[in-house]
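Input/output pair, single chain:
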Amino acid sequence: MRNHFNPLLTTMILATLILSSCATTHLPAVISSKNGISVTVINGTEAERFEIAKKYCSNFGSFYVPGEPSENGDVRYTMYHSYYCDVRTQVDLTGLQMKFLQMRSFQTSGQNLLKALQEHSGDRNGSCFTSQDHPALSVVDDSENAYRMNCSIGRAWYQHHVEEKGDKTFLRTRINYTSPGKPSHPYNVGGSQMTEAGVYRGFFKEISDQLFIEAVALTPAEMR
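Output:
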């Protein structure tokens, strides 16, 4: 029995194998474009694209995550998504829960605590403001012992209320993180108010350390 070579059939088989190979090739997810607060990721699976976007958004800070991907808008392209970076969703708390989370007492004067707050911001390239736009004290409620002051460090905003009661000074601080690309103002902070306990524990620990630092007296020889 004679075997007949059919070049057309051979070509068709090879073409089918090549196309099948290309169709099953898994291209890795990569960033195709980025524009400040948004990033477009192509190829890969949806989960892989999200992980790439998650890593990109973390450049804005540990609290920033990609939001829901935008619609592709074109049925011809199904292997890309665009993501917008924003503050991760916070849990809603009651007013009493927020007060418990945001308030601490310190065994120091209001003046010392306010100075520590200012230095805390200054040491981190931040700044503080009061209602008089002066980095001193802002008296509230016609009291000589209660003050308000806003401080900013990067995208984080701290709204401080300081009040002396007896031998203690109470600090209530609301911490907001603003969305990348959205401007904020010292007197109109905006953004997302944080309700994660770790954010406040870390901040109050830093203020306790700052009070200790400010209390350390250096000799002239140590300041050389």
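The first strand starts at residue 30 and ends at 35. The chain has two domains: 26-87, 95-215.
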